[in-house]
Each structure stands twice: as structure tokens, then as C-alpha cells.
Amino acid sequence: MADERQDVLEVTVIVEDVDAARLSDKANENAVSNYSLNVSLAERDRSTEHLVLSYSMELTSQPPTARFKVSGSATLKGNKEEIREGITAADMNRPPPVLLIIYERIYSTIYLLAGALKVPHPMPNLLKKGS
Amino acid sequence: MIQETGTGLYSGILRFYALNDVRKYMKELLERYQREYDKSSNVIGSLLRAEGGKGMEVIMSKGWAKVGAMFVDVTDPEKGGMELTFQLVTEMKPRIAKTEEVLKTFESVEALPIPTDATFLLYLHSGIPERLVIDTTEPRPEAFAFKGDFVTIQ
Questions:
Q1: Higher pLDDT, B107 or B141
Q2: Inter-chain contact A48–B154, Cβ cutoff 8 Å?
Q3: How far apart are the CA of B129 and the nearest CA of chain A, in angstroms?
Q4: What is the pTM (predicted TM-score) of this model?
Q5: In this predicted structure, what is the pLDDT of residue A3?
Q6: pLDDT of residue A114
Q7: How far off is chain A from B101, nearest CA to CA, in Å?
Q8: I want to staple B150 with a disulfide (CB 3.0 to 4.6 A). Which of A37, A84, A87, A88 is the partner?
Q9: Contact predicate A55/A105, CB 8 Å
Q10: Mean pLDDT, rounded, for B37-58
Q11: Is any Cβ of chain A less than 8 angstroms from the Cβ of B8?
Q12: Is B140 within 8 Å of B115 (Cβ atoms)?
């Protein structure tokens, strides 16, 4: 149902499942390591005023000393233009804004887990592979 | 501004992506009207019972005066407020009845041959669902899906 009174996109991110693994005894939390991130987003439910997405992210360090899998849901609340903007990437080389928001919200969880596992901490920003 | 009572009656057009969402919305609307009706009529009923047999004069204020284009009560706020609540309750009855009727007969709308990607425009007039447009000019957006590979950077 459309609600013209809303004027800011509100995103609620829920973590439903987390899996973290230390893959090598040689892992060192102080080492600099790039992580590759494989991500998928899929629509779970939609109305004119909200969109619920399922997300799944898998981060693997390079070299592979650690792996994190996080999945859950992200609910976007706003009018239909705001929702459309939230899921539309500015260009082919950039992630859709909602992905950046999800990563930003779950980053602290991954960061803490990396510390507990004594593996390198992932960096806070994302760049599309090959760009 | 604080809303003391009432249901925020709405006149306007709402768009839905599914007919079931229209039904759900109207059901929630009706429940809201009924809750408000019960609450307000309990207030009136309690007062009438407390005043034992005095009748409607206990909720009718004599303090109304026409000031400009509206009526203002400056001398009898308790009865003035109660009279407004009573007026609201009286107006709610037909609104609830009409919304109930729309919901009860909504099956006949659901039985229409509706294109799968249609959206729905519901017209509410003072809170009553009066008209529905089955809109094939603005279809439901395609289901969103995204997959990608990224690297984390500073």
C-alpha cells in the first residue's frame, strides 16, 4: 500500500545465520588480507511501501585462511521511488546501495568474529571484481 | 496537535501490488474502526450509566456559540467534548457497516479475471473503500534479484 507520508528510505537488516571458520593455522589477525565477497540478494516480499530481501554473503580471505558466511533479511521501507533507488546500482561496476547498507550493518559482526578467530579483518568497503 | 480519538479518516488513492493486500488492508481498517467505536461508545455508555436516567442532556452542551464559520464551546468543556465523541460514534456506525459490506462481498471482486501483473488502486472516501481500479498500465515490478562478486577494500 502506498504511503506518501514517508520521505526517507529506512532499511532494517536482520542477521539470521552466521558461519565463521578459521581455515589455516597460519592465519594471522595482523596480516593484511583482501577478502573476496560472493553475494546474492533475492526478493522475498514486496508492497508499494516495503521490499523484503533475502541476502547471502560469503567472504573468503585471499589466501584462504578464513571464511565467513552471513545470511538474513533486509527490509526497505519507503515510497516506491526510494525503494527503486535503493536496489538500483548507479552503474555496472557499483553494487546496489542496499548491498552497501547490508554490508555496513553486518560489518561489525564480521569484524568481531575475525578478532575472535585470530584471522585478518575484512576491509570495510566493497569494489566489484574486475572493475 | 494531539489526536484525542478518531481513526485518522483518509480520503485518497492507495496502490497495492496484490489483491490480497487490498483485502488485508481493508480488514485492518475495519478492525481499527471497530476498536475506536468500542472505545468511544464505552465512554458515552459509562457516562450515561453514571448519570442514571438523565438521558441525552448529560452529553449535550449548551455552551456552543458560532464564532466565525465554526462552533466554539468555551463554557462547558466536559459536555462539549462528550458531545463531539457522541457525534463521532454516530458517524462511525455507517462507516463500519459500509466497510464490512465491502469486505463481505469482496469475493466477487476476487473472482474477476485479473491479469497476473496488474496492480490495484483503491479509492477511500472519508475512510470508506469506495472504488477499485485494476491497473494494467503500471504493472507490479519484476522480482528483484542480484548476484555479484566483490573484493573488500580500505
A1: B107
A2: no
A3: 13
A4: 0.71
A5: 44
A6: 94
A7: 21
A8: A37
A9: no
A10: 82
A11: no
A12: no
Q: Is the pLDDT of residue B6 over 70?
A: no
Cell of B150: 566483490
Cα gap A91→A73, rounded to integer Å: 24
Query: Residue A120: which of A55, A36, A15 has the closest Cα?
Result: A36
Chain A residues near residue B15 by CB distance under 8 angstroms: 1-2, 48, 80
Contact by Cβ (8 Å): A64, A21: no
Torsion angle (degrees, nearest 10) of CA A44, A46, A50, A56: 20
Chain A CB contacts of B148 under 8 Å are 38-39, 95, 99, 128-129
ipTM over the 0.95 cut-off: no
Task: Determine which of A32, A46, A129 to mutate to test the interface with B (most B C-beta atoms within 10 Å).
Answer: A46
Quick check: A117 and A68 in contact, CB under 8 A?
Answer: no
Give B106 to chain A, closest Cα distance, Å: 17
pLDDT exceeds cutoff 90 at A129: no
What is the reported pLDDT for A33? 80
Identify from A34, A43, A48 which residue to disrupt to test chain B contact, counting B C-beta atoms within 10 A and taking the largest count: A48
Chain A residues whose beta carbon lies within 8 Å of the beta carbon of residue B10:
none
Q: Flag whether residue A18 sits within 8 Å of chain B, measured between CB atoms.
A: no
Q: Dihedral of CA A69/A70/A71/A77: which sign?
A: negative
